[in-house]
Amino acid sequence: MALNSRYARRLRARKAREQGGRCLYCKRRFTGDGPTRPTIEHRKAKMDGGRDRVANLAAACLECNQHRGRQMNQARQRAKGRPEGAPA
């Protein structure tokens, strides 16, 4: 997500505050840095038609955000190997 850094910082802080200072997925408390620092996460991925609207954004720790991205990429790769029309 290409956001002006000041806006991104404010958005991360706002979403983290709305979520009680915890990651959307693992519920761990956010820290200032490291794997549990807050990042902006698209609830519905942009590659699946999700938008950059605030309602589609959440705060997730870096670890969960990266894990979710890897899972989605692996699922897409598996789906590409299936014949057209096969169930996902």
Gist of the model:
The protein has a single domain (5-80), classed as DNA Binding (I), subunit A (Orthogonal Bundle).
SSE map:
Elements (H helix, E strand, L loop, with lengths): L4 H14 L19 E5 L14 E5 H19 L8
Antiparallel strand pairs: 1-2
Structure description:
With 88 residues, the protein is an alpha+beta fold. It has a single domain (5-80), classed as DNA Binding (I), subunit A (Orthogonal Bundle), CATH 1.10.30. It contains two helices and two strands. Strands 1-2 form a two-stranded antiparallel sheet. The longest helix is centred in the last third of the chain and has 19 residues, at 62-80. The protein starts with a helix and ends in an 8-residue tail after the last helix. The model has no long low-confidence stretch (mean pLDDT 87).
